[in-house]
Amino acid sequence: MLRMIQSGATGNWGLCVVALLIGLAGCEKVDTANPSTGTNGETAAPTVAPSTIVIDGSSTVYPISQAIAEVFHEQHSQVEISVTQSGTGGGFKKFVVNELDICDASRPISASEIEKCAQNGVEYLELEVAIDGLSVVVNNANDWVDCISVADLKKIWEPDSKITKWNEVNPAWPAEPIALFGADTDSGTFDYFTEVINGKTKASRTDYTYNSDDNLLVQGVADSKFALGYFGYSYYVENKATLKALAIKVDDSSDCVPPTQEAIESGKYIPLSRPLYIYVNKKALSRPEVVDFVKFYVTEEGQNLIASQSFVRLPAKNLTAMQANLEAALK
């Protein structure tokens, strides 16, 4: 019997795929005095606990690992897979102390996290699995802006910003308060956005609505005509009916470039294109089911599945490099 369970923590939805294999032999009674022996005197097979792969981390990478887990389970029903999301930083907090097999990440591991891994004897493999175009979005009813510059984004999001209304960014825009939505401070999306827009990781105004669950950020922007927010490209694609993604202009001499698969993959969508990763505890790679699961991310089938989730698959040379890195780690 296969049972699918959706689970969540602190507002985050996770996926727990549970495979329960129950052996039934008609209506045979079990000897309660000797549970391992049936009424025919034969020794019953011992119950085998299913293997579990534990994954946590980035809310951006979460849909990728969730999709991979669902398809993988179809061919490996004996493997239990727990996929949850607590943000890249939240995932690394568990990963560096040996609590995870895999950490989903929307940024590279930091120097302090590398040091903690070393202190706790955690050796890891970094694998790039997809490319994302972090998207700046507004409500679909917004009819005054289709393109925004990096400089204007900085005015809005920099620490101690005094911008509270749209017309304070551009006099042609409405004199209405901007309702801001963005990633929380444990998020790799927060780290990346603040670095490329404000020039320093974690440098941001604090008076905005933040959450580690991108679905709640989507809902916040969808509910307010005067909202502006940012999150991963896939969440925008899945909610085009209520959201509009703004094209990004690097400077006055550059073109406005919207987030599209072509622009993200080609590198034209700058500075908000970014790689997405999984970090694998090498100790977990001693288990064949973990090896097979991780390999799936960098197969053609896995990459096609990732693309179907509105992410941009790896360019051919990157995919080949990741396959080689994984094979080297297994030797």
Characteristic key phrases:
331 residues; alpha/beta; D-Maltodextrin-Binding Protein, domain 2; 2 domains; seven-stranded mixed beta sheet; five-stranded mixed beta sheet; 11 helices; 14 strands; elongated
Fold and architecture overview:
The structure is a single chain. By secondary structure, this protein is of the alpha/beta class. It has 2 domains: about 1-40 and about 50-130 and about 275-330, D-Maltodextrin-Binding Protein, domain 2; about 135-270, 3-Layer(aba) Sandwich (D-Maltodextrin-Binding Protein, domain 2). It has 11 helices and 14 strands. The strands form 3 sheets. It has a 7-stranded mixed β-sheet with strand order 1-2-4-3-5-14-6. Strand 9 (about 180-185), helix 5 (about 190-200) and strand 10 (about 210) form a beta-alpha-beta unit. Mean pLDDT is about 85; it is low at about 1-50.
